[in-house]
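Students often ask why we bother encoding 3D structure as a string. The short answer is that it lets us treat folding as translation between two languages. Here is a chain of 463 residues written in the first language.
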Amino acid sequence: MTLQPSTSVQRLVLTVAVLASFIAFLDGTVINVALPAITREVGGGISTQQWVVDAYLITLGAIILLAGSLSDAFGRKRVLFWGLVGFLVASLLCAVAPSAAFLIGARALQGVAGALLVPSSLALILSTFSGAAQARAIGSWTAWTSTAFIAGPLIGGLLVDLASWRLVFAINVLPIAVTLVLLARLPADRPADAGARVDVLGAVLGVVGLGLPVFALIEQPNFGWASPVIFVPAIVGVVSFVAFILHERRPPQPMMPLSLFHVRNFSVGNVATTFFYGALSIGSFVLAVFLQQVGGYSATLAGLALLPVTIFSILLSTLFGRLAGVHGPRLFMCVGPLVSAAGFFLMLRISDEVNYWSEVFPGVVVFGLGLTITVAPLTSAILGAIDSSRAGIASAVNNAVSRVAGLVAIAALSFVVGSTLDLAGLHRAVIATGVLMVIAGVVSGLGIVNGAKPARVQAAGPA
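And here it is in the second language, the structure alphabet:
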């Protein structure tokens, strides 16, 4: 169903979509500044910190493809409801976690629920808006949801310093309750497709293929690659992922239709997403932890350090989404990552003094501008290239790519910074972040096509 712009239903859809996605994205980043406080209370070192982040990202990235298929087959509203309820329960479990192992398990459950939220919310927008109104709606969605990546450290820092890290999770109760009330006001889903079914084997292979290699990356500094604790999961995971790709060519309703990648802007955009969001995960994680553990910043100040990025995103994301809708996304997807990279390269000026205004702030401002230029056009280019009937799975694939890129980047972080994060490690991480962003800009400049029309992609059949 496509409505004219600015109807009450469209406004309600956009509000629900923003709230649902914001909740999922926020919990992926709000945790960063709480990590030192968490490990002080429940124990553990850098490996525990990595697992608290990656347990969420592993299940989010692995389940999100299945969630996209469920959204297309059984209805966006229904999937959103169960995602919100599951996220509420998992958040409360995180808030009362008595140990690191319990918290990591609860974070994994949070990721499962979060996976149900994002593709359904974007699919709601794509099926309700069209044309220029769709570009503006995606820009608005991007403006608010992308702030979660940056507002998370600020909110988390305030809660950690003023109360307890446990409130980082307990605070989810209020926005989830509001979203559930608004969701109930949306029109009912269309009837489920006849013969709709879940690609169970694909889901299992995807989870194993993603989860085990990441486990190996996180734990290899502790055991070494020669240990069977590491190389067995790594081999099983890689084999499972290959089997997942091969399997997805066969079922009539695959979890990830490989034919989606025949569409140029979709495939190129997802390659750019891999590099850009991998870089974003490294940069935000390392900076938040470094400012506290080395710079001596409080959790609140570490969160405030990235406030300029939030301001840019809120003020300008809708503008860049609209401009990309008029002029095409290619220029913005090329220039934005390059500007973001320049911001991180400026952070090479950070010294042992960690002076915010002279060493951190300039890079944060430039990075924030580049991020804002990039995100809405990137989302529009990828999802605008696919017919709205496949909006759920297209959104799920793109979000899976970004989350998996982030979790692999965090899991591999020890290769860049070593076992402890010091000034030299920060500089190496900043360089790695900038290089990945440059690659994203180059890929977009060479591969994205302006004016691409939505392609109707079949869910079945070989790719």
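Translate back mentally: The two ends are 28 Å apart (CA to CA). Keep this in mind for the problem set.
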